[in-house]
Amino acid sequence: MNLRTLLLGVSSAALLCGFANAETLTIATVNNGDMVRMQGLTEAFTTKNPDIQLEWVTLEENVLRERVTTDVATKGGQYDIMTIGTYEVPIWAKQGWLVPLDNLGADYDVDDLLPAIRAGLTGDDGKLYAAPFYGESSMVMYRKDLIEKAGLTMPDAPTWEFIGEAARKMTDRAAGINGICLRGKAGWGENMAFLTATSNAFGARWFDEKWVPQFDQPEWKNTLDMYVKLMTDAGPQGASSNGFNENLALFQQGKCGMWIDATVAASFVTNPKESTVADKVGFALAPDTGLGKRGNWLWAWNLAIPAGSQKTEAAEKFIAWATSKEYAALVAEKEGWANVPPGTRKSLYENAEYQKAAPFAKMTLDSIDAADPKNPAVKPVPYVGVQFVAIPEFQGLGTTVGQLFSAALAGQMTVDDALAQAQQVTTREMTRAGYIK
Amino acid sequence: MATENTRGLARMMLAPSVGLLLIWMIVPLAMTLWFSFQNYNLLNPANVSWAGLFNYQYFYTDPAFFQSIWNTLLIVGGVLLITVIGGIGIALLLDQPMWGQGIVRIMIISPFFVMPPVAALVWKNMIMHPGYGVLADINRSLGLQPVDWFAQYPLFSIIIIVAWQWLPFATLILLTALQSLDGEQKEAAEMDGAGFVSRFIYLTVPHLSRSITVVILIQTIFLLGVYAEILVTTNGGPGYASTNLPFLIYRTALLGYDVGGASAGGIIAVILANIVAFFLMRAVGKNLDK
Amino acid sequence: MARAVSTRRTVVFTIAAWIIALIIFFPILYTIITSFKSETEAIQGFNIVPSGTVESYQAVQAQSNYFKFFLNSVILSLGSTLLALLIAVPAAWSMAFSPTAKTKDILMWMLSTKMMPAVAVLVPIYLLFRDFGLLDSRIGLTVMLTMINLPIVIWMLYTYFREIPGEILEAARMDGASLWGEIVYVLTPMAVPGIASTMLLNIILAWNEAFWTIRLTTTNAAPLTAFIASFSSPQGLFWAKLSAASTLAIAPILIMGWFSQKQLVRGLTFGAVK
Question: What is the pTM of this model?
């Protein structure tokens, strides 16, 4: 702590007193890079709107989710704007906890939003309940040098068969290189995000039309069998407790031949300041098995206004600004095009400068476009969501099933046992929640 | 010697604490009991209804329930074992003359200053990770396979992390007690030619017994509620290998938002804690009177 | 001859103690070292010589106003500790010096108020705080932390007070000291070290309380635990930044511990007064 911070603290307190009649918006957000960047750029907003002050609450994803969910459900009224995921939006909108965003302004251009993203944020009444700040899908990131060494060429749209072969060929454990790094840490947003999305490519689904769990079906067995065998043959040590960040660290140190994960990872692994393999990374669509669905998920962090907020108007003004084209241009001007929040607007992907600055732009867009949250699986399903099931029970269920699957990965349980137990706990929970009559 | 007067005063001095703690205990307990008989999911507040004992039955029939109780007890027992034995050993060592005693002391006490989630993150990634952790580096430099701690020994790894956090507490309390051991008694025993071992058994241990009891009881209460470390490292997995009762409640409360079920879990946890406390008091409680 | 033996003993003890201390301290030391690395360095395997960059500290400071969180931590931990001592000292005193048949049961009961897992009562407590308008208020959180730690404070004080030899009390009474005089002139000086160490321990417990301090605060009352939570596990590399934030959060309490540890451990040596 230095004198400057002290002065800053004092002066910001003085400012607060000075603008006693100014409205203060309390914004809850995730501590990911794009949001942190937004905090640094808000001056552009506050100088234009001197009557609006911004207070930030930045938390890690899991804690943030707990905080805002508890607050919105108990009507605690602590926040004026909340950052929530695509998982929350439909559930909360249904409960009437979100204010529809009807006044985003004439130049907001709602139709510029990517259709897949927009669909997930639109309620049954056709209204937009949250505005996307950044969006992501998942894709294959691979090391061009290693795949060449293995004598293979990565197609733009690989199959799981090819990925399996490539991973095994690229593996060189003596040199510390694992063919493939995948998520393994238990959790609905950890290994289950990956496995649920992947299972779609294998024709599996969480529930049939009558909400009966499908873990006893062969499609799930195929998915999990492939995953466990592949990771045993070509995965890193400690896979069963690796999440996004652990795999990112491994990949950036050059310890993975391939990594299938969120598209935002692309900007990290290609950043020469952070990554030792920045100039050797290629991208491909998430793999399929020829059944017509790919395992690419769809996620967006969105800004929304909780019902009951007294400052709806100011909040909507801020949301319109933070998710606008104008904001994208501002980031580009201050920090370069590569740092613009991705995955929300068509115009960004049509921008030549962005395409130049972000070599992964096309693959990201293709991945997002290929995801279909309303029809995620090969067979019909009663739910919305690619790598999740948008029902309130899913966080708990997904985590329990994730625990079982991570045990299968760690070799402490057979795939059959894990699936049988997953079927049992899911049936139990769904019966209790009244889905299964 | 105590008169009616002092006894009355003593009661008056005790009253605020007892009164406040009583309120503090009863209000949340009553609310929790009430919610435990309700079907109440936070994400579906329109659907609140009387559940009777269903929440308890549902919690108790959770496939992870019995293992979670067992894991809870293992964590408490394992951490107590390490911290009490380690604490006595380190306290004895610190009681000896040495150079740089102040620095050594502060280093040994310092883990207590680290917030639990941070401690767990540091241990998981910087120390224990089989890919890029320090332990893996050491293993590799010795030509050994790195250990995949959280897959192979999930519960043990968590016990190590928690024990690391609580070792300073035990050391501090035991060291304090040790230093109050009468120097004259020690010297007398030494004069009598009592060796280190017999001095330890007949002089030190009896003297430390009350402090050890305090360490055990206070730590047990904290350890029965450990979950942040599990959340950060393994999320209860693989399987249910590192799921303890508080983690199970966490899953119910903050992932499932099932307030009724979490409340029932909370009541069950209180019952378990009471059983543990009952046995502990029978085992070591008499030391408090010394 | 005797001196030679004792020097050799000192050497052995010194070496043993330093090895153990360094092992225990290593994770923290490594965190501090990592805070002076760049993010890339931080994941590049074992290396105890950082490049000495302060970019992580700059990044941390740019994202959050450390001073505000720090101030809240100070207010909350000091406030709750003083409040707890105010309530606990008389109680521990009375139980230590006028024990009754029920004292042990009362002690155990007090500890039992901590048996309810925090996660299980989050929603009830959140509702209570909402209804009393205490969400994100320092007062509400101070009371909360006071109540959480009160049993521990009473227990520790009770243990320390029990170490005060009863004969001194008897002697003072023989001398005709009034009850007030007994407390002020005889017992208080002997109790101060125990109170001081309890205070220190409780400040640490309150400083590190990471469940309620995050769940019940938003902006005004958020202490350093919330500061830490804003640097933990974002998407992307965060080791150096989290290390810097942790170092900043631990530093004040580490420094406080450093300055008070001598008084702390030596002050507790009751052997001197016996």
Answer: 0.88
